[in-house]
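User: Here's a structure from my thesis project, written as structure tokens. My advisor, Dr. K., wants to see whether a designed sequence matches the one we expressed. Can you design one independently, without my sequence as a hint?
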């Protein structure tokens, strides 16, 4: 099933979130929800490309310098210049009300609001627009990706490592790096098949056949 909104992740500042959006590589339909907001500034790039790769010409990426009064004006402009041989890279669009939107890899938008209340209201508005039921936002953990199911419920992405966001403090980020490095070192030792010796340097009480393998240095 082609879901218009596929997943959601809350960011740690309690005011921002990311959504997985379908078809953003071909169109920016998602921005229609913000069409009445006045635009403060944009960081947008465009690039022409060879759809069928007939030639090896590499076209430059150019920043779009045109100013827009609101998102509707921007979308109208895109409908004129975009097409099968144009790519649009939306790095950032900032609005006069303090909100911002950034696009990542065509499939994800990060949306920045001014408060937890604005964030929650906007989330439920957006997911309701694609026929999902309201969700218990306060029950979601930051930096965890949740996937929408057709029933409207959410399924947590199972991962042992939480990915930090841009709002983590330096101390928290450094602690995260230390924990990840420690984890990687342990996994490397396990992959190499290095034997574990406990703090008393006493071999575990394995059956004799396993103990023989331990001593001779090959896996059990």
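Assistant: Designed independently from the structure alone:
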């Amino acid at each position: 099933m082609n879901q218009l909104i596929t997943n959601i992740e809350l960011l740690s500042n309690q005011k921002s979130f990311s959504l997985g959006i379908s078809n953003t590589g071909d169109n920016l339909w998602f921005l229609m929800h913000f069409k009445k907001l006045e635009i403060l500034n944009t960081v947008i790039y465009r690039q022409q490309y060879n759809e069928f790769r007939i030639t090896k010409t590499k076209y430059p990426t150019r920043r779009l310098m045109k100013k827009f009064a609101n998102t509707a004006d921007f979308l109208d402009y895109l409908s004129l210049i975009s097409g099968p041989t144009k790519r649009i890279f939306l790095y950032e669009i900032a609005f006069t009300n303090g909100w911002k939107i950034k696009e990542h890899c065509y499939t994800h938008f990060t949306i920045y609001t001014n408060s937890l209340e604005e964030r929650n209201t906007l989330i439920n508005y957006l997911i309701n627009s694609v026929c999902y039921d309201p969700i218990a936002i306060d029950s979601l953990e930051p930096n965890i990706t949740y996937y929408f199911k057709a029933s409207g419920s959410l399924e947590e992405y199972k991962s042992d490592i939480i990915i930090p966001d841009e709002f983590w403090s330096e101390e928290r980020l450094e602690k995260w790096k230390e924990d990840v490095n420690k984890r990687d070192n342990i996994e490397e030792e396990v992959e190499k098949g290095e034997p574990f010796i406990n703090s008393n340097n006493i071999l575990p009480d394995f059956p004799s056949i396993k103990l023989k393998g331990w001593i001779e240095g090959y896996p059990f």
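When you compare it with your expressed construct, this may help: Residues 51 and 84 are 7 Å apart (CA to CA).
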